[in-house]
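Section 5: illustrative case.
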């Protein structure tokens, strides 16, 4: 599975006008479908929603800057490990991220877009998990 970066950018552009609704939907989806991860998060999510939105924007902006992207993801992975995130939590987050993007992208969402986001999320989660595991060893 490979990612078409132009599809990542165009589908994210379709989602961007929805702003904070996107992250609210994401967390609602995540906690509804995977309630076991709820204790990993603060009771109030306003700041966390803003950080997620900023991280998604940074991810899309740096798709071709492998060095910057890898560094950002490794830092996130280490921080998330410190919060108690485990490798088994990442698939739940990926499922909720894809569901959220699909919901807000509308007609911009196609099977090829989903394949690209799934591939990108695989790299994201692999990088973050590896960094988190390395930091706790």
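Designed sequence:
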């Amino acid at each position: 599975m490979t990612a078409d970066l132009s599809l990542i950018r165009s589908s994210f552009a379709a989602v961007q006008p929805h702003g904070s609704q996107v992250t609210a939907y994401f967390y609602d989806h995540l906690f509804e479908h995977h309630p076991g991860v709820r204790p990993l998060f603060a009771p109030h999510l306003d700041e966390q929603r803003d950080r997620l939105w900023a991280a998604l924007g940074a991810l899309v902006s740096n798709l071709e800057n492998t060095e910057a992207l890898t560094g950002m993801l490794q830092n996130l992975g280490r921080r998330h490990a410190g919060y108690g995130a485990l490798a088994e939590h990442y698939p739940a987050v990926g499922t909720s991220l894809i569901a959220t993007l699909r919901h807000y992208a509308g007609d911009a969402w196609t099977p090829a877009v989903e394949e690209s986001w799934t591939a990108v999320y695989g790299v994201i989660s692999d990088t973050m998990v590896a960094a988190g595991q390395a930091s706790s060893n």
